[in-house]
Write a structure and sequence with these properties.
Structural class: mainly alpha
Distance between the termini: 18 Å
Number of strands: 0
Strand content: under 5%
Number of helices: 2
Order of helices and strands: HH
Helix content: over 70%
Shape: rod-shaped
Radius of gyration: 16 Å
Low-confidence stretches: none
Largest sheet: none
Length: 73
Amino acid sequence: MSERQILEVEVASHEARVAEITAALRNLQENLDQSADPPALLQRQAELLRMELRGRSAAVAVGSARLRMLRNE
């Protein structure tokens, strides 16, 4: 596989995970909003998902930028 093909696969996998995380966070936030005193475990899960979302979003941005550079070469 070429670098471009590898990057395309990696970016696509990160984008898919971002979509999964976004959906999971939405569900988790609904549960947190419904509870007057949400369990610490749910709050911790939300924090971890947000952290992963930031990392995955950054990976998509970097990978996409590299792909644009490769297309311009």
